[in-house]
Design a protein that fits this description.
The chain is of the alpha/beta class. It has a single domain, classed as Rossmann fold (3-Layer(aba) Sandwich), CATH 3.40.50. Helices cover about 35% and strands about 15% of the residues. It is built from 8 helices and 9 strands. The strands form 2 sheets. The protein has a 7-stranded parallel sheet, sandwiched between helices. A two-stranded parallel ribbon has the order 7-8. Helix 3 links the parallel strand 4 and strand 5. It is globular.
Length: about 270
């Protein structure tokens, strides 16, 4: 992105991660254009529409330099809802970006695109970013679709994407399992900025987490973009272990990257 032109469309701007990024990304020099189906209090210029409104989406995309795409359903839901929001909605976004000549998207993928992969153990071999899709839910399936859609738009149209398989982005991790996957808000902003400014990314898939002591997946593709994580979930470990104890073999929280998303029905929060 040119240094003098950094207008960024932030979809899902009223959501959990979107709200955090509204406060953090401007410090990196971005002028934000906000998009969400939920009205954003105090932001009269935000576009209030869902991803099915192609006209509103096209207007929101017009003139921006890049997009951070966080919009969509962020937990398991009936397939019809996932289809409309996460699958058709992401397609609509990519079509609008292609038609308006946007050259870079940062796409919020998820660890749930490979949720049935074994949860890595501290000290073991890190889970490679090349791990094949093993979605644990319709939600995870939609994130696998988003990655493949991004690959298509790069190969066919030259539209670059960094797909960030976010572990858990929150002020602090919620479970013992997510001590390995936690992405602090500050590190999320650092990772998104690196993904927006790195040269020649094509379609790059990265794992999105902080530099956690219990980290079990490979951050090398994220670091290659210029990402330098600064936070570690270990400061929360004692509290979580006291509350929940260590997961044991046979427990999805122990066995699978997707944790309780790998149960039927999937449980929430994860």
């Amino acid at each position: 992105m040119p240094a003098a032109s950094r207008t960024l469309l932030l979809t899902g701007a009223a959501g959990g991660i979107g709200t955090l990024m509204r406060g953090l990304l401007p410090a990196y020099g971005y002028a934000l254009r906000l998009f969400d189906a939920t009205p954003i209090e105090g932001e009269p210029t935000a576009v209030t529409a869902d991803l099915g409104d192609k006209h509103a989406l096209r207007e929101a995309v017009e003139g921006v330099d890049a997009i951070v795409h966080l919009a969509g359903i962020s937990l398991e839901a009936p397939f019809e809802k996932i289809l409309r929001s996460n699958i058709e909605g992401t397609y609509n976004l990519y079509e609008a970006a292609r038609e308006e000549g946007v050259r870079r998207i940062v796409h919020a993928s998820s660890s749930h695109a490979i949720g049935f992969a074994p949860l890595p153990r501290p000290g073991g071999a890190p889970l490679p970013v090349e791990t094949p899709h093993r979605p644990d839910t319709f939600y995870g399936l939609s994130k696998a679709f988003g990655e493949d859609l991004a690959q298509l738009y790069w190969d066919r149209d030259g539209l670059e994407t960094v797909s960030v398989r976010i572990g858990e982005c929150a002020m602090e991790p919620s479970t013992v399992r997510t001590l390995a996957l936690w992405l602090s808000p500050g590190d999320a902003a650092r990772l998104f900025d690196a993904a927006l400014t790195a040269p020649r990314v094509g379609h790059t898939v990265v794992f999105g987490s902080s530099d956690n002591t219990r980290l079990g997946w490979d951050l090398s593709s994220a670091r290659a973009l210029g990402y330098v994580p600064q936070d570690d979930s270990e400061q929360y470990a004692q509290k979580l272990l006291a509350e929940h104890g260590e997961p044991t073999p046979g427990d999805p929280e122990h066995d699978f990257l997707g944790g309780v998303f790998c149960t039927d029905p999937p449980q929430w929060p994860y």
